Amino acid sequence: MRLYRLSPNSLQFPAPTSALHEPNGLLAFGGDLSPERLLIAYQQGIFPWYSPGDVILWWSPDPRAVLFPEEFHVSRSLRRIMKRCPYRITLNHAFGEVMASCAERGQEGTWIGPEVEIAYQRLHLLGQAHSIEVWDGDTLVGGMYGVAQGALFCGESMFSRRDNASKIALLTFCRFFSQQGGKLIDCQVLNSHTASLGARDIPRRDYLALLGQLQPLTLAPHCWQPQTLSVVTLNSEPDSGE
Is 90 exceeded by the pLDDT of residue 234? Predict the structure, then answer.
């Protein structure tokens, strides 16, 4: 297998199955972050991920980390917080602020440079990228953003400035997304945080098959309109431990 260089004159990507095994999923480099190229990439199960200032790298890892909304793991501590949730959760109220906050991750580092922020804000203006915000009064304390693909949502990044704020954002979004007809959240690569919330690996071929099935599906009308989301009620649900 070889690494493909994308042509500036073509939006064509190589097949995801031609991605490298090491590093896992690296498929191509080059190209740009135009809305057209980004959307074609997501439609094929491909996403960009690279360090600011470096050449753009495109990935399609195997296995692929996904979260089925009904499998979100609710710990005892999160259950206690949700019973008296002090926060307000919104959808598409502050996309740019959420992206900027995801980019400010200090020692953790980030791949979200100015070029990436501009690219995804363009997708947001086209109605293709969306954000979930967690507010403490008028202060943004957590959130996440990603790209919609029919009944599949490709999660890109999340942040917290208060304990559990990103978990609250994802839990609230899972319930809302499911109610609107959503079926699956793409988490790209499994890590300890997403695994603790219920994400799991599936083979890339299974992910691509699900992507093909879910892309054509239509969610409820006005799903992505800016709105305040209802806080999840967990009192009647079984305890899933810490």
Answer: no
